[in-house]
TrEMBL record:
Cellular localisation: Cytoplasm
PROSITE patterns: RF_PROK_I
GO cellular component: cytoplasm
Chief place of localization: cytoplasm
Protein source organism: Schaalia canis
Protein name per the record: Peptide chain release factor 2
Amino acid sequence: MAIEFSEEIQALRTTMENIIAVVQPDNLRVQIEELSEKAAAPDLWDDPARAQEVTSELSHRQSELDRVTTMSERIDDLEAMVEMAGEDPDEAELLLEEAEGDLAALKKDISDLEIRTLLDGEYDERNAVITIRSGAGGVDAADFAEILLRMYLRWAERHGYPTKVMDTSYAEEAGLKSATFEVQAPYAYGTLSVEAGTHRLVRISPFDNQGRRQTSFAAVEVIPLIESTDHIEIPEHELKVDVFRSSGPGGQSVNTTDSAVRMTHIPTGIVVSMQDEKSQIQNRAAALRVLQSRLLVLRHEEEQAKKKELAGDVKASWGDQMRSYVLQPYQMVKDLRTEFESGNPQNVFDGDIDGFINAGIRWRKNQAAES
């Protein structure tokens, strides 16, 4: 038994060495020290938005360092427990039983931490902007879009990631036509980008008085948030800007001025709406930032498509429909790319989607390695 534990512990140490090589704790400590100095500046809160950005980044960097440090300490504690079991025959059975439980928990936590090392894309470290749009399926699709919005917000809440709903367009009967929100966390884009695609729901429709089964669809778009260093310039003549009053469900006015902004990029037809901020100027700035983010992704996709064309690669890496949520005639959520599945849709809708995300990240990495 002790030999088996020794082999398992050595395997965990090897994995942790690989993780540490990528995460670079020493660099994290330097970043934390620099951010701590900024956070201590007496004039920090003169600019509340900048202050929030600094304190949030400091919190996340410290949390990342703590995760790596704590994981290494847990491996040391496990090894010490196994050694104690070998030295104390009377307590050996109890100690080894406890060690087995700790080993299983460590394997899972280190596997989750290892996912972080796979996020090495150009924009993976950015905050994420997610847009959910209802698709085919009428009112059920609009309701499904609202269910997905709640799912992602609950997922972020579970991890302690701040979110900000930037725009919502309500459907007439129930649910949402579309919603856009931001997730503020290191590697939010790299993590959530595997959620992009078409999601499918099969259930007995609560909106059908005959209780028939209904299939509906919703599309999820994930983009990295633009940064000032990205230099995406948009000439003024390429923009069409409309202003209107913000509104809530049922058309109820939540703003008495024309503060909401709809921005259209004429060459591409991309449209961004923003109504979260209190002034038209703020909404215009937020809409422009999201539009720049989408154009950045579009430019990146065009570059990648050109590279594939030159390389003669015509394989599609993502299918149109990537995940099914089936509530009737059986209970199952299944990702069609990774084959990862859950038999508890309610837990998934409550934000328990880490298994799907982690499987998606590993799948994406394998696809990239094969292409």
